[in-house]
């Protein structure tokens, strides 16, 4: 199994930056991708960025050029650097891992971390 835990959320003014962290543990060798999702009040959860094991990242149009994902393989950490934050970025941000224990696809979600951007 794989577990992921997010950290780093908080309250920030518009235009500022914030870094989120996702710590992965367990059968990390079976991870194929780690993604960041977010869910704003009254809205569906949406994909922010997906990072696969090849290092390729795919960003949502709404965050392109402002958010950047990186990883530290030695520490099994994935980071989301959010710049030029806007009030519409306010949401609970979730880390998600897609992994394949024994060949079958499995999914792990973190508990979420709140990001609030004030205008």
List keywords for this structure.
119 residues; mainly beta; 7-stranded mixed beta sheet; 4-stranded antiparallel beta sheet; 11 strands; 0% helix; 58% strand; elongated
Report on the architecture of this protein:
It is a single chain. A hairpin with a 6-residue loop joins strand 9 (91-99) and strand 10 (106-109). The protein has 119 residues and is an all-beta fold. Strands 2, 4, 5, 6, 9, 10 and 11 form a 7-stranded mixed β-sheet that branches. The protein is elongated, with a radius of gyration of 14 Å. The model has no long low-confidence stretch (mean pLDDT 96). It is built from no helices and 11 strands.
Write the layout of secondary structure elements.
Layout: E1 2-7, E2 10-13, E3 18-26, E4 31-39, E5 46-52, E6 57-59, E7 67-72, E8 77-82, E9 91-99, E10 106-109, E11 113-118
In short:
The chain has strands at 2-7, 10-13, 18-26, 31-39, 46-52, 57-59, 67-72, 77-82, 91-99, 106-109, 113-118. The protein is an all-beta fold and 119 residues long.
Please describe the biggest sheet, giving its number of strands, its sense, and whether it closes into a barrel.
Answer: 7 strands, mixed
Distance between the ends: 40 Å
Tell how many strands the DSSP assignment holds.
11
Work out the strand percent: over 45%
Rg, alpha carbons: 14 Å
Dominant shape: elongated
- The number of helical elements comes to 0
Uncertain regions: pLDDT < 50 for 5+ in a row?
A: none
Oligomeric status: single chain
Order of helices and strands: EEEEEEEEEEE
Secondary-structure class: mainly beta
- What average pLDDT do the residues reach? 96
The portion of residues assigned to helices is under 10%
């Amino acid at each position: 199994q794989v577990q992921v835990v997010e950290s780093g959320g908080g309250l920030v003014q518009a235009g500022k930056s914030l870094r989120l962290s996702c710590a992965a543990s367990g059968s990390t060798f079976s991870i194929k991708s780690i993604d960041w999702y977010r869910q704003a009040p009254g809205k569906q959860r949406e994909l922010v960025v997906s990072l696969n094991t090849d290092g390729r990242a795919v960003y949502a149009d709404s965050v392109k050029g402002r958010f950047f994902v990186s990883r530290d393989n030695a520490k099994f950490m994935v980071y989301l650097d959010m710049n030029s934050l806007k009030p519409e970025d306010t949401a609970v941000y979730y880390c998600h891992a897609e992994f394949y224990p024994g060949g079958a696809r499995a999914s792990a979600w973190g508990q979420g971390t709140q990001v609030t951007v004030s205008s």
